[in-house]
């Protein structure tokens, strides 16, 4: 067994001479096996090892017995041992996290703390080949991509290593038996035991009986291949990201160069995701939909803007993509209603919400065929259909419009939902009404009621300019 | 439904105006649905369609009823129809293929024939979203990589297209019902029905009930993502392949430039596979093991050679990798035994098997510490341990050697098996014996019996040069 683990360590370049390795030691069979093997390979590998145990205070008396066990084992083996107690229930409530995620956060914070204080440079965790197969099957059923299919990484950032990922659960059990070790048996852990057990007890045995008795090995082999493919694509994407993503000095604006969009879709989508994650400085999981929205935006005309979650605004600027913030400091929630008398049109620019509006009147007395250059932010209307006023306001409950080309009225609410405008953005969108009817939901739709026809004599042109 | 398929066609760029599309039409629900939808979209897409049906003569009367049904439907719809009858059982026996593979080969040959004769430019097949999910689960269980996880391709080589891959089996059935179509029900097809049914009737329902009721959609979404990742890696690999793989005029020798091996492993392994497939001009599925053997070889010393299946020989030449043939014309199966008297050593070069051997004697009377530059094909022996003869021969039953560093004898057969030397290569390997004991299995192992020690006075140097 030691030999197998040793060649896995060498093949995957997990450990080098002089490493100081902290073993995450729960006291269960896997981590006991890992600790034992590393201890036995210690001289051959020329490493130092230590053990860290977090008491999650979750399982009453059992948790303290685990802690005691861990301390005794380390004393026996003369391994430095670091123990900490954290009330994970309390922590998860305070931080609004699942106990699973809370446990992981606290554990890794604790490990990092020891790394710094005690001069360790690597953390070894005790995932085995069955954990790997179960993880892959679980992700596959829930929905995943290349990253997810890579499964548990053999090593991450040259800091976290998994030396017994090559051993099956049965091999670990055999080792424990042969060495006459007496691990603590976890009665719960922080994974979703219920789903995990279904995979372990139903799905994998079914596959073994009906399709492939070596399914665990098969999936582990696949994961190693996919990890390499994924690593390549990720490295390549980061190279492209650094080439085509420019930031201003204080990283408040990112520009994705238009040349980016000539790269392969597999790369472009990853670069966009990197940009969004990097820009928002959060682990918010942007959906593929948002990424494809930006891809689409890059093919649209300049000036077009879409809003994303996390207060992100994305704009097409002559093919480049600008990512900036709709952060509340810059945003004006305009509560005013500005009415402009028909006779005053064109005399002044109107500042409303986050836009500047310029209105002008064109004459088409000669009845020539019209060649009006419109865009998302430049629209034309039949001036003669306005009785008195042009009104600038934002939405109210019950607002309706007859969208261009349709006959019936539609609720603005439904339009916003259909066009996937985030709730927090809806109060920012200016509505331009002629008398008491909505003529333009700026940037989105115009009304059929005021459209320009061949019979229109006087045409109102409105240009909206988004303010920075 | 038409709308859904139309936008799938547009999103994936499957059809362009003017295409002439041949529908693979079995008469079953899926292909009937596909034919019907394409017929209804015909004008909108500005395409022509035809139908092709291969009667496999496998299901007695039923096969002829299918054929009749297909012909009638096409007559009704005024669609040109091409039918051919092939005895697949006979064909599969004659060509030693599974009836599954035989059916596929004959079908696609038939389609290609019609494409050429009748001016069609695309073939449409009727795989649906459930077929996709089942294919992915099947491959995953059997073992696969990125290519396999991509599943059924939406389109291949801009020639084979799958326009209803976006429809679930239920949607196809609903369509058939609504349109009051009466498809033929396949009682068998050329897929492994048994496994397929287990996935369809056991695995997918289990996942739907316990994990994810949208599993079919989930896997289809994954497959689209993976297809893009796979396409990128494949394109990139081909670029690298063209850059670093040089061929001689008649493609009898391929050289992989040493610079290749600095690329990412994901790319290097694909380039090696391409080179092997391209060189052997066969669809032989080289194992990952062979590919890693070549990767390893690239790190070894110049002159080292490994043998692969399909008569391929791979050699390290100063870090470059040369792929060439061990084809029988060039290979000498040397049946001779050449004995050289100890006194004659060094007088002549010895030509034996596919090598030329040069022997020379070094003196170490001064007892200086030795600095012998050895390699796979350059070895040193203690001359004084030879009584009379140096003998060149190839293997015989029962041959044994005491490998360097070991005490006991090992069978050559076991050594060949352990070192994974293909059977057909074993008779080519020269054995150099001193008197009646094997001293060198050329290129592989030397004997412990004749090793050079600090006490050796006279040293025999043997250089083996592989002949082109």
From TrEMBL, chains A, B:
<dbReference type="InterPro" id="IPR012796">
    <property type="entry name" value="Lysidine-tRNA-synth_C"/>
</dbReference>
<dbReference type="InterPro" id="IPR014729">
    <property type="entry name" value="Rossmann-like_a/b/a_fold"/>
</dbReference>
<protein>
    <recommendedName>
        <fullName>tRNA(Ile)-lysidine synthase</fullName>
        <ecNumber>6.3.4.19</ecNumber>
    </recommendedName>
</protein>
<comment type="similarity">
    <text>Belongs to the tRNA(Ile)-lysidine synthase family.</text>
</comment>
<keyword id="KW-0819">tRNA processing</keyword>
<keyword id="KW-0547">Nucleotide-binding</keyword>
<keyword id="KW-0067">ATP-binding</keyword>
<feature type="binding site">
    <location>
        <begin position="26"/>
        <end position="31"/>
    </location>
    <ligand>
        <name>ATP</name>
    </ligand>
</feature>
<dbReference type="GO" id="GO:0032267">
    <property type="term" value="F:tRNA(Ile)-lysidine synthase activity"/>
</dbReference>
<dbReference type="InterPro" id="IPR012094">
    <property type="entry name" value="tRNA_Ile_lys_synt"/>
</dbReference>
<dbReference type="GO" id="GO:0005737">
    <property type="term" value="C:cytoplasm"/>
</dbReference>
<dbReference type="GO" id="GO:0005524">
    <property type="term" value="F:ATP binding"/>
</dbReference>
<comment type="function">
    <text>Ligates lysine onto the cytidine present at position 34 of the AUA codon-specific tRNA(Ile) that contains the anticodon CAU, in an ATP-dependent manner. Cytidine is converted to lysidine, thus changing the amino acid specificity of the tRNA from methionine to isoleucine.</text>
</comment>
<dbReference type="InterPro" id="IPR012795">
    <property type="entry name" value="tRNA_Ile_lys_synt_N"/>
</dbReference>
<dbReference type="InterPro" id="IPR011063">
    <property type="entry name" value="TilS/TtcA_N"/>
</dbReference>
<dbReference type="Pfam" id="PF01171">
    <property type="entry name" value="ATP_bind_3"/>
</dbReference>
<keyword id="KW-0963">Cytoplasm</keyword>
<keyword id="KW-0436">Ligase</keyword>
<dbReference type="GO" id="GO:0006400">
    <property type="term" value="P:tRNA modification"/>
</dbReference>
<feature type="domain" description="Lysidine-tRNA(Ile) synthetase C-terminal">
    <location>
        <begin position="390"/>
        <end position="462"/>
    </location>
</feature>
<dbReference type="Pfam" id="PF11734">
    <property type="entry name" value="TilS_C"/>
</dbReference>
